Amino acid sequence: MPATAVKPNATSKFESEVQHQLAQVARRIRTHDLLCGAFLFSTVALGYLALVIALDRWLDLPAWVRQVGFLGLLAALGAVAFLGLVRPLRRTVNPLYAAREIEDTVEDAKNSVVNWVDLQDKPMAEGVRAVVAARAAKQFKDADLDKAGESKRLLWLGGVAAGLVVVLAALFMLFKPTVFNSLVGRAINPFSSGQIATRTQLTIVEPKGGDLTVTAGQPVTIGVIVDGKVPAADAADRLVVMLRHNLADENYDEVPLEVGSTYREWSLRLPERLVQNGFWYRVKGGDAETAEHHVTVRPKSMLTDFEVKYEYPEYLRMASDTTRNPHLEAHRGTVVTVTAKANRTLKDGRAVLSKQPAPQPGEIVGDARASLRVRFTLTESETYRLLFNSTDGEANTDAPVYDIRVLTDQAP
């Protein structure tokens, strides 16, 4: 097209059209770069999450490994965010680069757009400028502006990100929600002490807290609530109580639990022969296992030591006497004070005499409140028992029977 064929007033029209189209392409290029940065950011984050979840489930990664990996992830995401998101927003698109992207969509492109951009800052005749602008405008009409700035990188990164979403969905279905969520928590918060959850969750509800102290001769009931997957009663991974009576023994006796009123409530009543002098136990079932707990057995509540003080009638002219024998023997009218020490902290106590209609109330003495003191007068031969209630609700209902022998005066 000869230079004279383009009217001077058309030059500004062609240049305005070219600049407008070039600005549109530049915006598309920036948007494309930002999307690539966003997809790369997502790919790094999702890839880290999928890798750590799989390895943690397989190897139970120690905390320091997860912490180092997480710090590395933060560094990588920071670099991707700066290079792929912040920098494209702060920088302008080079017009020559945009021009080349436009011409890549035209077959047999003749660098008309590139030449127009390259000659913008150079002096030239008005006729030449008009011709260059006209050719650039024609090139724009032949170009597919919707494809300008596109690259396979965006499609590739989007495909990888979508694939990682599918991988995470597969891990979610494989590990089940509870386990998957705990693995995600360990991956994104490696500085916590969270443990990998199991598909089966066991909560010991009886005894409360797991540990227990019982009195000799009492049975022990162990009850659990099962959440998540409940194994069948006849399955290999059925619910059992694993117990041992010696910490040095690595072998456990397994006793199956029995289902309760609902299929999530299970319990076991251990008889005295299994309780023995105490034991350590844990509950296992499915892929879950509780921490080990201890059942301690203490002796039955009883009186272990006695002090008996005799205060004889005045006519006998005998000095007071003290013995440790709970079987009583003295003349009628003697006042006896029995102080008995118990192996419990006492709440109250009393002496029950076989021939007396009402018990003799006792007094709790001693700084430890572990002694019972009872005072009464001997009137006739009979028997007596010392009964008490401890502060923890126990009573010595099987207390032994002691004799009372009242001596008669001999004739002068």
| Low-pLDDT residue spans | none
For the biggest sheet, the summary is: 6 strands, mixed
Query: Level of helix content?
Result: 25-40%
Number of strands: 20
Order of helices and strands: HHHHHHEEEEEEEHEEEEEEEEEEEEE
Helical stretch count? 7
How much is the radius of gyration in Å?
Answer: 46 Å
**Strand content bin:** 25-35%
Give the class from helix and strand content and strand pairing.
Answer: alpha+beta
Feature tags:
single chain; 412 residues; alpha+beta; 6-stranded mixed sheet; 5-stranded antiparallel sheet; 20 strands; rod-shaped
Report what the structure shows.
With 412 residues, the chain is of the alpha+beta class. The chain contains 7 helices and 20 strands. The protein has helices spanning 8-59, 63-90, 95-103, 112-118, 126-142, 152-188, 272-275, and strands at 200-206, 212-215, 220-228, 240-244, 253-256, 258-259, 265-270, 278-285, 288-289, 293-298, 303-311, 321-323, 328-331, 335-342, 346-353, 360-361, 363-365, 371-377, 382-390, 402-407. Strands 2, 4, 5, 8, 9 and 10 form a 6-stranded mixed beta sheet that branches. Strands 12-11-14-18-17 form a 5-stranded antiparallel beta sheet, with no helix packed on it. A hairpin with a 5-residue loop joins strand 17 (363-365) and strand 18 (371-377). Helix 1 packs antiparallel against helix 2, helix 3 (95-103) runs antiparallel to helix 4 (112-118) and helix 4 (112-118) crosses helix 5. It is rod-shaped.
